[in-house]
Design brief:
This protein is of the alpha/beta class. It has 2 domains: about 110 residues, Nucleotidyltransferase, domain 5; about 170 residues, Nucleotidyltransferase, domain 5. It contains 11 helices and 10 strands. The strands form 2 sheets. It has a 5-stranded mixed beta sheet with strand order 3-2-1-4-5. Strands 8-7-6-9-10 form a 5-stranded mixed beta sheet, with helices on both faces. α3 crosses α10.
Length: about 325
C-alpha cells in the first residue's frame, strides 16, 4: 500500500452486530470486518472490546495494515446514550490499541450522517427496538428521546408492537376488547395448545412472543383484521410522536429537513409510514422522508473522514456506500 494513502476507520457497534470499515481519503474501502454484538448494555464493557477487536482484526487483515496506521476514526455506538458513558466507552475502545482522534456518537446518528442529504436532520430507528435522534445544520445542538422503550413511554419497534399486540389478544380472550385473528396467530407462533395455554406459558416463561413474530401482525392486518390494523396505526403514530418531539427540541418546525428512516419495521411501507408522516407533518409540514439505503457503518466512515479534515463529496459518499454494500 502506498505510504501516502490516508487510512480512516468507521465502526458501527450495535446490539446485534459490529462492523469495522477501513477506507482511504477518496472513499475506497480497504478492509471490512464484522463481529457479534458490542452494546455494553447487553454484553458489558469487555464484550464491547472483544467484538470491536474481532472486527478490527478482520478489517486490518484484509487491508494489510496495522491498527497504528489509522489516522482518525468515527464510531456509532449502541448504548452510548449519555455523556457520562463516554469515558468508559473510550476506555473499552482503547484496550484494542487504537490510538487516534475519534468521534463517538450514538449509533442512531450514523443513519443521519449516511442518509440525510446534507448530513443533518432527524434519524428514527424502528427495528427490534426504537430510537430517535437529530442534530441541527452545524451539529451544535442535539435532540433525542430517551431510548428507553415503552418503559419510558416510547414506541414502537417490533418488540414494543408485539407487547401491545399481546395485550390486545389478552383483552380479546377476557372479553375486555374486540375479537382478533391475532389470537390464533399467536397460539401458532408460540406453539401453544390454545389461548389459556399461551397465557399460562407466557407468564411462566415457557413461551415467548418476540420481535421475530411482528411480521405476522402486518400479515393479519392485510387480511382485514381491525385490531391488527389499529396496532400498526398506533405504532406509526408513536414513531411520528418521537420524531415530532425531536423536531420541537431542535426548533425545526418551519424548516425543510430530512427524516431518515432506519430499520426493518419500515419494510411494511405506507401502512406504517402514513400515520407516522401525518403526525410529523402537523409539527413540520416541510419534513422530507428518506429510507436509509447505505449501511450505517458508512456514516461512521464519513465521521472519520471529517475527523481527519477531509472533504466528503457526494462522489465519496456514493463510492463508500457502493463498496461497503459489496462486502456485506
Amino acid at each position: 500500500m502506498s505510504p501516502q494513502r490516508k487510512i480512516l476507520l468507521g465502526v458501527d457497534i450495535g446490539g446485534t452486530k459490529t462492523h469495522a470499515l477501513l477506507v482511504d481519503e477518496n472513499g475506497a474501502v480497504l478492509g471490512f470486518g464484522k463481529a457479534g454484538p458490542g452494546n455494553h448494555e447487553s454484553v458489558g464493557w469487555d464484550g464491547l472490546t472483544g467484538a470491536l477487536q474481532s472486527a478490527l482484526d478482520a478489517a486490518c487483515k484484509e487491508a494489510g495494515i496495522h491498527i497504528d496506521a489509522v489516522l482518525a476514526a468515527g464510531f456509532g455506538i449502541g448504548g452510548l446514550d449519555w455523556d457520562a458513558q463516554e469515558q468508559a466507552t473510550r476506555k473499552a475502545i482503547g484496550k484494542t490499541g487504537l490510538r487516534c482522534p475519534m468521534k463517538l456518537v450514538n449509533d442512531t446518528i450514523l443513519g443521519l450522517v449516511a442518509g440525510a442529504t446534507e448530513g443533518w436532520g432527524v434519524a428514527v430507528v424502528s427495528g427490534t427496538g426504537c430510537n430517535c435522534w437529530g442534530w441541527n445544520r452545524d451539529r451544535t445542538r442535539i435532540g433525542r428521546v430517551t431510548g428507553g422503550g415503552t418503559g419510558l413511554g416510547e414506541g414502537a419497534g417490533a418488540s414494543e408492537l408485539m407487547a401491545e399486540a399481546a395485550k390486545a389478544v389478552a383483552r380479546a380472550w377476557t372479553k375486555r376488547g374486540p375479537a382478533t385473528a391475532l389470537s390464533d396467530v399467536f397460539v401458532e407462533c408460540a406453539g401453544a395448545r390454545d389461548l389459556p395455554d399461551l397465557f399460562e406459558g407466557l407468564m411462566e416463561d415457557r413461551y415467548r412472543l418476540d420481535a421475530c413474530s411482528a411480521p405476522r401482525i402486518f400479515e393479519t392486518a392485510a387480511r382485514g383484521d381491525a385490531v391488527a390494523q389499529g396496532l400498526i396505526d398506533w405504532a406509526g403514530t408513536e414513531i411520528g410522536e418521537m420524531i415530532a418531539a425531536v423536531v420541537r427540541q431542535l426548533e425545526f418546525q418551519k424548516l425543510e429537513f430530512d427524516v431518515v428512516m432506519i430499520g426493518s419495521m419500515f419494510d411494511a411501507g405506507p401502512v406504517l409510514t402514513d400515520p407516522m408522516r401525518r403526525k410529523v407533518q402537523t409539527e413540520a409540514p416541510r419534513a422530507r422522508f428518506l429510507r436509509l439505503s447505505s449501511p450505517p457503518v458508512v456514516g461512521a466512515a464519513i465521521l472519520a473522514l471529517e475527523q481527519g479534515a477531509f472533504t466528503v463529496s457526494e462522489q465519496v459518499k456514493t463510492r463508500l456506500a457502493r463498496e461497503t454494500i459489496a462486502r456485506l
